[in-house]
Protein 1
Amino acid sequence: MPPFISDLTRETTRLWRQFDWLPEWAVIALVLIAFVGAGWLAHTAAFTVLRRLVKNRDVFWRGVVERARAKLRVLVIIIGIGIGVSVSPLDPGPSQQVRAVLLFAWILALGWLASGVLDMWTAVHLKKFNVAVEDNLIARKHLTQTRILQRVAKVLLVIVTIGLALMTISGFRQWGVSLLASAGVVGIIAGLALQPILTNMVAGIQIALTQPIRIDDAVIVEGEWGNVEEITSTYVVVKLWDWRRMVLPLSYFITKPFQNWTRENARLIGTAMFYVDYEAPIDRLREAFERIVRASVLWDGDVQVMQVTDITERVMQVRCLASARSAPIAFDLRCEIREKLMAFMRDECPEALPRDRLDWNSSSSAHPGESRDPVLK
């Protein structure tokens, strides 16, 4: 026991002997009330000063002070009770048991405070970035990294806090050591049981560092198109185009191939395919296509190309390319090109529409007046 605690104990015992007319439990209660009250007053005074300091700051900082207030109050109360029990005339045996319980609770409260500090730091860091803007690549990058690392850090913080708390109890000390050092039978069993979780945690760290996906990325997974809606410490939620949610483990994005349409930037080239007749005037179609793209508010002013990419036994295949600022906008631009170019062919250029031809067999062996069989081409 520290010397100042021993001195306080002796002084309290001396005072108690002067008031021996009081029962022992009353003296213990008065000592506890005195120390807890002193801690409460110190805590109240400190946060009164902090409130005045952040009074003219924004709502965020006022909220930070209010969230930390309850956590620190619990710590101060535990410390006050611990000092009060130590200096009170309580018997050594019960006093030691109470201090053990208080130490266990103090470690848990300290972990709770550290978790709150982590949340506050995360909020302060993410406040610098706005994901709502159109060009939000950097913001999504920091959001993804911060959220994944925050969740991994919280899992590690819980493990360390529980391990340290268990080490204060003699019957569970080995459990705490096993939890912290991953040693012994308990550590092996826990390691085997938590292998999928640990695998996804490692995958989460890899994703946070290498960034194959980010929040709001447009991806194609398992043949479905959607946006990354949430990344936790163990799984990823992909919001599909029809509002369904696909939940995938983090390890999926490390071990399996997938398409990320917004890996470097949100811009994307959209493709619209057309099938036209051999006699289609490609120059006129190209002019109409360029006119449609230039007039569209969805086009980003970069790529616009029309090419004949294939010729089959019946039609020509025409590919139209146009770029847009993001994947959803590129999808809408593709639909607009299809609708307006098809309307142009229908109303102003019908010769571009695919047609079937009939060729009559004019073989010399046919007799005059004999009907000839049509051949479909």
Protein 2
Amino acid sequence: MRYLRSGPRRLQTQDMGAPRVKTIGLRSGEIADRNIRVILEAIRRHGPLTRMELGRHSGLSGPGITNILRRLADQKLVTSHRRNGLGSGATATEFALRPEGAFSIGVKIRQRRGEIVLIDLSGQAHDRVYFSLDPADRVGAVHAAVKDIADRHAALPILGLGIAANDWTDEQSDQIAALSSIARPYVENECTASLLAERTIGSFTREGGLAMIIIDDDVQAGFLIRGIPYSGVHGRAGSIGEMLTGPDNVQLNTVVGFESLRSRIGDQEFTRLLDGEEFSSPSLSQWIREAAGHLLDPIIAMAGFLAPSVVMIGSDLPQGVIEALIHQLSIERRDTSTRPLLTPWISPMKPASFSGGVALGAALLPFLNTLLLPPASA
């Protein structure tokens, strides 16, 4: 997608810390669109805000802010009320996001399973469904899932559709657009979608960047640098699953990926995990120990080369399993019997903010392309 550009950019800030309104090379219509997004993003992140506070956050003039607020109110995206404790005047009115003003659908696609979620403008999930996929007819399965959730919420203003998949094609997007009443989907890979969820509605802070590891059928990594997803040449950044890791020098996917977990604990217990059930077993504990022993190698590499402020681990596995894996990683990093070095400089590790963050990130794509500030502008 055009806005997901990588690399350093010049910080466009005034001395007071507010974004500049003038953007070289943009036409007047593009500037107006960006200013609307700036105001809506400020309200979403920091609201409720008065006009004066919006001016400090955006750097826009009073009349410009008033016109934008009028448009957002007409579109039912913001609401206003008097702030208690303030005197009379324009600054006594504050403006807040109206989450039910827009909705979006996000789909996470794997080879044989999918997840679909409906979110409002604040990022709150209102509906979530898991469904099976036939590899021979993925488009048909996705279309059926989208139609079903859209029909159940036909009264809501659904803005668009986002898809998170690592092997989804333009042709498949065209087919979905031809079948669906919703506009052509926006598509990103799974890690980028999860990073966008963290950046937009999660606990991400700009300083130091963010590394995200996704554990699924395979193991992937993604990076946020200055708030922008970094994809690398041909989008190959983060392909850590094929690394040879651990003292036995085996491929990471074969030890940490879901197929390894399934073979270790059995089909029945694996299904229980994907259903969100928390339990402990000797076979699961053994997988956690082996996974941590191999996962530490790419984490050391990330910390050494990128030094992110935090390394997050996301998965469809229950929160308790991810926390146990992170705890085991903290044990592994202090064990010099297999690695003859201490690694106190490794970035802090914690679970991703959301269960199902990939689908949430996919659902944010229509908002980031139409209403909210995309990563390259935020």
